[in-house]
Amino acid sequence: MEQISCRACGSCVLVEKYSMQQTSVQWNAAAVAACPEIADGGARVRTCNMLRDSIDDAVVAGVVGVSTREMDVNNRGAMPRPGIG
Q1: 28-40, pLDDT tens digit by residue?
Q2: Could you list the residue range(s) of the whole structural domain that residue 24 is in?
Q3: Are 19 and 59 in contact (CB under 8 A)?
Q4: Structure confidence by residue, pLDDT tens digits, 59-81
Q5: Is 35 within a domain?
């Protein structure tokens, strides 16, 4: 996971992209408290549009890569074979 800061409020979260459509975001208490979109929406708001834009920009810039989740799942716990990978 990569640490990304929201360009609007500066909240730092951990992000991993599994495809262009699927993003995993790990919020911490400080980020939740600092995000005006989350704070204003209370429990019913689960995402921040400005953070989403910041993540998309980080993907375009190459800061956050898109994982090949299928490969990750298939190889979880497996030791690499000599000459492969």
Answers
A1: 989 988 998 887 7
A2: 2-67
A3: no
A4: 999 999 988 656 555 555 555 55
A5: yes
